[in-house]
Design a protein that fits this description.
It is a single chain. Helices cover 81% and strands 1% of the residues. By secondary structure, it is an all-alpha fold. The protein has a two-stranded antiparallel sheet. A hairpin with a 6-residue loop joins strand 1 (8-10) and strand 2 (17-19).
């Protein structure tokens, strides 16, 4: 028996080997990657613009461009994951991430700053949820929901851990120095974790236990696949526009910035709670009913935020419930491919399915802010976003996969 084989633990059901170190390693790297590459930016951006004189819109556009690059590169990453597994992809991504931040930290002008973020977008594609989900889906199937839940719970702590760390560093260092230190933390925690913990052999995908089959070329050309892509794109746009728009919505209604921040933060706590409930929901609802129900409930919470005025406690409850739905939607998207088409081509299908949704999420804050003025304010914007979510719930009905008896 080789050392690699000796390091592999058997599953509780004896279905397939599972590398012991993968789950804790991915929990650590998701917290760190999201915390450094994503959540540090909104903390540092005001200082960046104040110190450089670069327009806030331009620096934010550079960050959004990184998210769009992540969506596009994620399609290629998904193909590699299916055939070769996560080891090389995630290790390379964790090397590229710190290098990209060093480019950002030393950028003499806005063009180089933007180039650094474009590189960071490629790192995001190789280190964020998509490759982690692909790894857990292949190694943990058919009991992958528990593993996915654990990793997303860890990922949900990224802002809790790294927003304060970033702010503390920024109190003592320049924004450039802060990013340099964060790059070092990112390299120290993610490179060895990915390089060492993901070395186990990449197993063949389990045969689907359902009566749903399909070659991936047929799947990506099918109506259910593209209707599901439309569903997730509309839902992602509405969800991220709500997250970014909640604070200005409450300020517009006369609440203080502190009150608005508390409402947003408690919504994040709801998101963590929601992820603990997904496995139970999955046991009781089929895949189509689950999709329609969660997106429709998201529309209801958005509508409540649009219409409730003058009752802060009710708005906070609505924000928490919206967070619960967001937490479930993360896992819904993580399991969407497996539940419909099995695990064989999970990486490629999830990359194609997620690309437009990730792009919509990147554009949502800007488009939402632009639309709020012509619509007459954030309550009207939230009403529009609720309508988009209802539309997404309707398109989910058309995403029911074609079944075929084996």
């Amino acid at each position: 028996m080789t050392n690699t084989q000796a390091d592999v633990a058997a599953t509780g059901t004896g279905v397939r080997p599972r590398p012991r170190a993968v789950l804790p390693a991915l929990c650590l790297t998701q917290i760190t990657s999201w915390g450094v590459l994503y959540y540090a930016f909104p903390v540092l951006n005001p200082t960046i613009t104040a110190n450089t004189g670069w327009p806030a819109g331009a620096t934010t556009a550079a960050f959004s461009a990184a998210l769009i690059v992540s969506a596009v590169v994620g399609i290629y990453v998904g193909r590699v994951l299916d055939h070769r597994g996560p080891h090389a992809v995630m290790t390379a991504g964790s090397v590229l991430g710190p290098l990209s931040l060093l480019v950002v930290a030393t950028a003499p002008n806005l063009a180089v700053f933007t180039a650094g973020w474009l590189l960071a977008g490629a790192s995001m594609a190789a280190t964020f949820y998509q490759p982690a989900f692909a790894a857990l889906t292949r190694w943990w199937a058919p009991d992958h929901v528990r593993a996915l839940t654990i990793v997303t719970l860890a990922g949900g702590l990224a802002s809790t851990v790294f927003a304060p760390i970033t702010a503390l560093l920024a109190d003592h260092l320049s924004w450039r120095g802060t990013y340099a230190v964060l790059a070092g933390i990112l390299a120290a925690l993610t490179v060895p974790a990915h390089a060492l913990a993901l070395k186990a052999p990449w197993p063949a995908a389990l045969p689907s236990s359902s009566n749903i089959t399909g070659v991936h070329e047929h799947v990506v050309r099918s109506r259910p696949f593209w209707m599901l892509a439309v569903t997730f794109t509309l839902s992602a746009f509405a969800m991220y526009a709500v997250v970014i728009g909640l604070v200005p919505l409450l300020i517009e209604r006369g609440y203080t910035t502190t009150q608005a921040a508390w409402a947003l933060g408690l919504g994040g706590a709801g998101q963590t709670l929601g992820r603990t409930l997904y496995a139970t929901l999955a046991r009781h609802l089929g895949v189509t009913a689950r999709t329609v129900t969660l997106i429709a409930l998201g529309a209801l919470t958005t509508a409540a935020l649009a219409t409730v005025a003058g009752q802060y406690a009710v708005l906070v409850v609505a924000s928490i419930l919206a967070g619960v739905i967001r937490g479930n939607l993360t896992l819904l998207q993580a399991t969407a491919v497996t539940d419909r088409w099995g695990t064989t081509h999970y990486g490629r299908l999830s990359g194609l399915l997620g690309a437009p949704a990730h792009a919509a999420a990147a554009l949502a804050p800007f488009v939402g802010a632009v639309l709020a003025g012509p619509l007459g304010g954030y309550p009207a914007l939230f009403a529009l976003l609720a309508t988009l979510s209802i539309t997404a719930a309707v398109t989910a009905l058309a995403a029911r996969p074609t079944t075929r008896k084996k």
